[in-house]
Amino acid sequence: MAPVIDINLGGCYSVKNHPLSGVTLLQWARLLRARWTQIDYLTYWPRLIFLTLLAALNTIGAIADWILYDAKIRAQELNDEPVFVLGHPRTGTTHLHNLLSKDPRFAYANTFQVGFPSSFLSTSWLAPHMGLIMDSTRPMDNMALAWDTPQEDEVAVNQLSSGASPYAPLLFMRREPEFRKFYDFDDCDADDFARWRDSFVYFLRKIQFAAGGKHKRLLLKSPVHTARVKLLKEMFPKATFIFVHRHPYEVFKSAVTMADRYYWQCYLQKPRVEDVQEFILYQGELLHRKYTEDVRGVSEARKMEVSFEEVTENTVTALSQVYKALGWGKDFARFKPVVEAYSQSLRDFKMNEHKELGEDARAVVRERWKAWFDDLGYAR
């Protein structure tokens, strides 16, 4: 499909904010062995050298974690009632995740932990110095980014599994179709699924251990989990799912902005604009289709849907409705002042102003995301 978007594909010397900053030498070697013919070495050699040096340092921390904590982590029981925040990227999942993380009943993965999943227990003293390799705001939307900010668990799993994740296309965008099997694993062989599952469960055990044990419910947010409701329900029968949705045009505009401002910091392979465009469109189709298919199997008491506008414009009311619908209502009075204080702290935050979509782009979004418009009642 011809491009209907315009994005930046450059920045080969950038080394900040890379999703593999915490990779170990073994994980890095496995990824390179599988993808060595697909890397554009002449373009991205500074990034490759930087990641290799980091991998050597990360390996020292990983060995310390393994010696000191591995047996305890593997013995750690998981709280069997995790809460998953779902939604397509750019629908407000981060905002809701941040809000819910203020509730002390929850344990969540922070930026340092997902960035350095193999070593964070023994290297946590380095967390305040993350500014050396990470910006203080997210490149795509200027939201605050700090070492203790709640973050997406799939970032960690992508590293631990050496790329058995839908996040791997950010490295190899021209090969994006090869990673589609990692959304729902329907077409995934047993070995590849085991790479993801074992990495995911091990990371959750590690987060649960870091939180002091199984008394806290895990609060998890990765947009790709939106395609995994059936699988996650099988793994955690008592799981709760909160789905955030937003107008497809706004999501597409925001996704294009994210690609323009951030994706180029990740590439190890030079993509084409049409590769990135297809990644955005296909992901939107798949996440919506799989969610609508799978969520029917979840009991009403363990699922809730809320819109981007409700969460951002009427935050306290929206959170109150979420808590009531999920049977947590009696606890909201205690939590309400925290929500109000956090919302007040964001009073001066200004959301991105995105480029308006041309008619060609709007037509493509209407065609590819038709079910999204229809199912959620959004005007075309």
Automatic annotation (TrEMBL):
It holds the Pfam family Sulfotransfer_3. It comes from the Eukaryota. PANTHER family: OMEGA-HYDROXY-BETA-DIHYDROMENAQUINONE-9 SULFOTRANSFERASE STF3, PAPS-DEPENDENT SULFOTRANSFERASE STF3. This is Sulfotransferase. It comes from Micromonas commoda (strain RCC299 / NOUM17 / CCMP2709) (Picoplanktonic green alga).
